[in-house]
Amino acid sequence: MNLKEFGFNSIIAGAGLLVTNWLGGWDAALKALIVFMILDYATGFLSAWKNKQVDSEVMFWGGIRKGAVLAVVAVAVMMDQMVGNKGPIFRTLAVYFYVAREGLSITENLGLLGVPLPGFVTKVLTQLQEKGEAK
Fold this sequence. Notes:
single chain; 135 residues; mainly alpha
């Protein structure tokens, strides 16, 4: 590895560390949210492609929306810190809410693609969304 590669890799690692810290740590909930966001974007693109409705502006704003969701998670982390919560209460609620929303969107996209899903999947996603809204 040469010096340029090392410098580039160090910058990427440092940025990843800062973003992960900003989002409250890299735990199972955040991993699920990121994976669901990627799957939602991909299945949304595939369903638009299948239906010949691909629109770069819609895709652009979809990406912006994903960034805004991560900003809300970061705000929830700050709220937990501000009120002195011992655990990530607001962050957890925000992440669960958005995992459920992304999951429901994936379910809709898969439906547009003609992929059947087991009933328990939509049931669990609906329950997660209700948990996020109830508190």
